[in-house]
Amino acid sequence: MTTGLSFTGRRRRRNTSRAVLVADRVARGLITVGGALTVVQVLTVMIFLLWVALPLFRGAHLTAVANTQRPGASGGSPLHVATDEQQLLGWEFLADGRLAAFALADGSPLFVRELFREGAPTAAAFPVQAGRAAFGFADGAVRLGSAEVATAYVPEDEASGAVRNLVAGAALAVGEAIVQRTREGQLRREELLVEIQAPLVPAGGPAVRLIALGESQAGPVIATLDDGDRLAVHFVRERRNPLTGETTAQTRSATLSYTPRTGAEPAWLLVSGHGDDVYLAWRDGTLQRWSLAAAGAAGPVETVDLTPDGAGLTALRFANGGVSLVAGDDRGRLRVWFGARREEAMAPDGKQLVAARELRGPSAGVTALGFSSRTRLLAAGFADGTVDVLHLTSGRRLARLRLSGGAATAVALAPKDDGLIALADGRVARWRLDARHPEAAPAALFAPVWYEGYPAPAHVWQSSSATDESELKFGLMPLVFGTLKATLYSLLFGVPLALLAAVFTSEFLSPAARARIKPTIELMASLPSVVLGFLAALVIAPVAEQAVPAILVSFVTVPAAFLYGAGLWQLLPHRTGARLARWRPALLALALPAGVGAAAVLGPFAERLLFAGDLKLWLDGQIGGATAGWAPLLLPLCGVATALAIPRGLSRWQRRRYAGWTRTRAAAADLGLLAVGSVAALAATGALAALLGGLGLDPRGPLVGTYMQRNSLVVGFVMGFAIIPIIYTIAEDALASVPEHLRAASLGAGATPWQTAVRIIIPTAMSGLFSAVMIGLGRAVGETMIVLMAAGNTPIMDWNVFDGFRTLSANIAVEMPEAVRDSTHYRILFLSALVLFAMTFLLNTVAEIVRLRFRKRAFEL
Amino acid sequence: MSVAPHCRPARAPRRATAGTGASLLAHGEPLMWLTGGALVICLAMILGLLALVLARGLSSFWPGPVVRVETARGSILGEVTRTETWRPDPGFVAGLAGEEADRARVQLARRGGELRRRLVRTGNYELTGEHFRWIADHEVAGESRPPWALVVERVAWGRFYGEPRALLVDGEPAAQTPEAAWRLYREREGEIAANRARRRRLETRDMGAVNRRVEAARLAARAAELKHGPDSPVAERARHAAQAASEGAEGEFARIRAEIDRLGAANARYELLLVTAEGVEKRLPLAEIVRAYPANRLGPGQRLGVYLARWGEFLADEPREANSEGGVFPAIFGTVVMTLVMSLAVLPFGVLAALFLREYAKAGPVVSAVRIAVNNLAGVPSIVFGVFGLGFFCYIIGGTLDQLFFSARLPAPTYGTGGLFWASLTLSLLTLPVVIVATEEALAAVPGSMREGSYACGASKWQTIRRIVLPRAMPGILTGMILAMARGAGEVAPLMLVGAVKLAPELPLDGVFPFVHPERSFMHLGFHIYDLGFQSQNSEAAKPMVFTTTLLLIAIVATLNIAAVWLRRRLRRRFQDSQF
Fold first, then answer.
1. A contacts of B388 (beta carbons < 8 Å)
2. Is A543 on the interface with B (CB under 8 A)?
3. How far, in Å, CA of B62 to CA of A155, rounded?
4. A107-137 b/e with 16+ CB inside 10 Å = b?
5. Most CB contacts within 10 A, which of A225, A730, B122, B386?
């Protein structure tokens, strides 16, 4: 460009200056890089959401840390094994009444202690949730005991040389304790403190064969079965003396009626977490339940076979929370049972034991179960040496490993769910566990899950709980449902209004009026949604609550007012009508207050007639019958049906007859026809309602129900403010961009403006209208503030117009500030954001493609 | 531009069908009315809503009369805030005592089976435990407007209603009649307000400055420890400096506190003795009174004065009483600063992207796909951007910044949590499509002939863009930016995640070095509405504030939008004039 010949054949006299060239180069580079980066940044949003949400679906990760021989591990099978939060100490209760503590790093013993002077306990129980253990003895005594790790920080100058030389993370056994240097450089000393309480049930009875412990609100509940076949419950009330700090316990005992089965000894005795049920189970899978809550039932209230397929029971324990009972059998299956309140329950307390889930292990018997004390995580050891890490709620197997030394005799999860220890054959093996997000199986997120205590599998969202014991419920379906419900009801209201208004604006309004009215409605789009939400909740909802019947009636009277208005208008002589045509919009505007006024008058009347005088009580199901209630639901349907049927049946007759009549006569006939149609619609409604009511169908339930102040009706109306302007603008643009020559040709061929609009313009612009609705849909799906403020935010699945819901977007707004970074909850919220993103992006893309195609076609016409 | 046909029946084919009934059907009058009805409903919705906000927002600061209502259960004094009717249960009247039942029956007969009740703002929360009371008309035995009833707006505890009895100076009555007390109050008002303002300045600014010095020294010590190790001489010196600073601060604190106490004591000398409707006497220190006026003695001019003073307070002051009283200045400030920072971030990138797409990228399926994607981003729910902003800006980028530059403050996050800067960036992402689309349209509207003319004169591409295209497109770009600002100013959902808070003690711009604090969380008008309407404990008292805040927010957003429309119109006219 700088040199060479130009086409005139003369050499250019001056070269382009260097500065211009450099500026051009730099600008090109900058704009290309900056622009491309900006476009890429847009894609980052989606990729980032995906990047945060994806780890939800990865399994747990286990790393073997140690697998050591344990010197001095004497025989005696361990009854229970546990570790501390830092996983420095391990300890086991042995069947002979000793407690052995060892360093987890190398298995070296710290101490072995005889716990009881009176000899080995004959029965022991170590429930997950209680934090202490119960022991029964040959002389009938019952004691409670606990083992806790005490943490203290050692000053540097008091420590010995070997301890002082510890590097961060390393640990050393000092006497009976372990000292570790923390990452912050301090010395942390951990020591196991064991405490055995005085007997709660004094000695002097038959030997305790089985014992169980539960914790009610008042204190521990202990169940014992002794050699005299007496099944007893001991309720312990603990009182702490505020002056001395001593705890005194009072025990009240009760005997349950128990009939021993011949030939089979019971193998497990359990008390549920809150101390309201006692379970006794045999190796053949039989389980009997005594209810301590149901008065007057001394005998077992329920008997179940935990292994209906004839397998033998090999392990039975309560999971964290004491509600879910996990039964392992000799074929390697784990079944989760819990008491659910059900209609068909035979027991007097209304509960029935149900097998909610079955988790499959390898086909070898279950030998050991270990539970997390903060989540629903479970470790199970099997006879072939396999250890599975499972999650109870989602039913997911997170990890599997195989022990080298045979079947695990005891397994335990570390208190923070970050470690797993297994004892087998004199060895102790330890793994570091990264459970990640066990609750978030796809099935648990999107399919119904049978949660603890629920009568049936259900979709439930309950992302936080007061205690570690209750089960978290991450079912996204109620939120997806709420989103769809909000979208549906707002579209039902907004779409017809916006489309019809767009048709009127584009086809029947003078350009001057259109230039004023269109920006006014577009102004609606700029209203901040927080304003709409606030008005919906604090102004419209209370008003709507006062006037529900009138609002329902207005769905009929307002359209009717416009139709009758048109009928009256037609009665005007042709010439007068033509002269008054400028005033038609004003008359139109008058029909609205007429319709609203009629609704206000007829509302209370309809309430008396149809809803026994009080709509809210009727909705609640307290008064009134089903028949009349169908009317408001059916009337719009019948109205539309009549409006479609009458012209179809009569149009030929009308055309023939009207042609001979004067305009006014025809108009009068038309008005009469409208009146006949209204009556016919009312009659049809009445007949259908009577039919449905006669069939015993009640609208209360699926479609309508108890009235809540923050409900879908209000949200639908207010969301109209958000979606109407969008749909209206795009639809109006589509209608206006239909080529002018089509319109001119149609009018020129003698069609009226109405005929032109219906037969030419609307069909041509159809795809544009469709894309308008899709974009409105996208906006409704993602709207946050309105639903957050006006929808009540209860995550329920219910089509009731008069009830609220919780949408994905509102849920994010409510829960995101509280979600801990990188927790399961946090990632699930990211997942729901991703779902929202994908939904709207898809809707908008479809709309955009349809719109572009329409535009192309419109230009081709 | 297509022009819709002018619809008049008179224009329809007149010759053949005028006067006969057949044309009637062809005109589809009833269905046309239905479409018109839809438009009327839409218009009624928007106009009704605007009227409601305007009426409630403008009227809420107007000082109304104070009424004294005598009932069988004592008398109350207060302002009527609203009235409603309700339909009592059938057995309701039977359960009333003597006179009330009679009055209720009269009312029922007059109102066709309904009763009326009024919500009276009674204030005096520390005495009665409630701010508002419902009074049904049949409960009213007598009603009056006491001439000296005083409405007192206070620093704490909400409003107080009572009649002045005396003004006490040092506990001794200095004025014994309502009139004299009121006059004396008016005399002392200015001085006490000045004292209060000074005291507040001492408490916030001076104390804050000392606190900041101590904190800065502590942070320096911690930073030295982290950098050189806790035992190094540098850290040792820094620790000593911090120690010295905190000891030095003690003296300063004592001095400031003494000054505060002095001002407090000066103000505490004056007390207003009020008597409530129930006859309880209450001493109100003048220092606690923000504003007082004898509502029933005010002329229209004085009412207007109170009204304007309240607006002034609303626009310029900080909130009081859990945001339900006082002003919204921090929220206005936060909204404006956030929107400005957002536009600074969105404008260059939006224009770059649009220039790239329109002028530099080769047109093809990739560019149109990107264009569709950018368009669609405008339809992605704003809350999704909030989630992205929280995860990406606050946690990842902010967390990294904290690790690198603010490790002394950890674990307290500096940039690793929501703040003004992250909120602005999040919103700029949200409004980016608006700017890109508007700029692209503006670029496309520059006639190709002008570009060609420029090239023909020998200009390079960049010269053409800079001298010819961009100046022409500038109004369009500005329109896009203003629309983006309007969208950004009204958006709340993402802000809830990335830094809007109900009460921010410090503004993101102030006189303390480095003057701009983009990491601070901020107040926002939209979030203020949400918070007042939903999280407020005394939501009835907060209602006027919500309406005025709503009015303010709508006014800001509407002004921006109207500016955009005006600019767009000007732009079109200019192009129409100058096409060749």
1. 45, 48-49, 833
2. no
3. 68
4. beebeeeebbeeebbbbbbbbbbbebbbbbb
5. B386
Q: How far apart are CA A523 and CA A725, in angstroms?
A: 8
Judge contact between A664 and A571, C-beta under 8 A: yes
3-class DSSP state for residue A92?
strand
Supply the pTM of this predicted model.
0.87
> Which ranges of B229-328 does DSSP label H, i.e. alpha helix?
233-268, 300-316
- Provide φ and ψ at A175, rounded to 5°: 65, -125
Question: pLDDT tens string for chain B (580 positions)?
Answer: 344 444 444 444 444 444 466 677 778 888 888 999 999 999 999 999 999 999 999 988 889 899 999 888 888 899 988 888 887 877 788 888 778 888 888 888 888 778 888 989 888 888 888 888 888 888 888 888 988 888 998 888 888 999 888 888 888 888 888 888 888 888 888 888 888 888 888 887 888 888 888 888 888 888 887 777 777 788 888 888 888 888 888 888 888 888 888 888 887 888 888 888 888 888 888 888 888 889 888 888 999 999 999 999 999 888 887 777 888 899 999 998 899 899 999 999 889 888 888 888 887 888 888 888 888 888 889 999 999 999 999 999 988 888 888 877 777 777 878 888 999 999 998 898 889 988 988 888 888 898 999 999 888 888 899 888 988 888 888 888 888 888 888 889 999 999 888 887 777 777 776 777 777 888 999 999 998 887 776 777 788 888 999 999 999 888 888 888 787 777 666 655 544 4
Helix (H) or strand (E) holding B175: strand B172-175
Of A529, A581, A667, the CB nearest to B9: A581
**DSSP SS3 for B421:** helix
Q: What angle do CA B524, B55, B35 make, to 5 degrees?
A: 95
Give the torsion through C-alpha atoms of B321, B327, B330, B333, to 10 deg: 160
Judge contact between B367 and B357, C-beta under 8 A: yes
Cβ-defined contact of A34 to B31 (cutoff 8 Å) = no
**CA-only gyration radius of chain A, Å:** 38
Q: Does A498 touch chain B (CB under 8 A)?
A: yes
Instruction: Quickly list H helices, A661-711.
Output: 663-694
Omega into B178 within 30° of 0, i.e. cis? no
Q: How far is A527 from chain B (nearest CA, A)?
A: 7
Which of A38, A751, A852 minimises the CB distance to B349?
A38
Strands B160-169 and B150-154: antiparallel
The token pair that represents A715 in the structure block: 């949200």
Question: Please, what sign has the CA dihedral across residues A478, A479, A480, A486?
Answer: positive
- Please state, in angstroms and rounded to a whole number, the distance separating the CA atoms of residues A321 and B28: 69
Q: How far is A185 from chain B (nearest CA, A)?
A: 11
| Interface touch A520/B47, C-beta < 8 Å | yes
| Alpha carbon distances (Å) from A769 to A229, A514, A523 | 80, 19, 20
CB of B412 closer than 8 Å to CB of B349: no
To test the contact with chain A by mutation, choose from B3, B6, B27, B41 the residue with the greatest count of A C-beta atoms within 10 A, namely B41
Whether residue B29 and residue A570 make contact (CB cut-off 8 A), yes or no, is: yes
Does any CB of chain B come closer than 8 Å to the CB of residue A556? Answer: no
Question: Would the CB atoms of B22 and A658 count as touching at under 8 Å?
Answer: yes
First to last CA, chain B: 19
Smallest CA–CA distance, residue B51 to chain A, in Å, is 12
Query: Mutation test of the interface with chain B: which of A1, A15, A31, choosing the one with the most B Cβ atoms within 10 A?
Result: A31
Closest partner CB to A520 (pick from B25, B43, B391): B43
For chain A, the first-to-last Cα distance in angstroms comes to 44
In chain A, what residues touch B57 (CB-CB under 8 Å)? none
On chain A, the residues whose CB falls within 8 A of the CB of B460 are 16, 20-21, 23-24
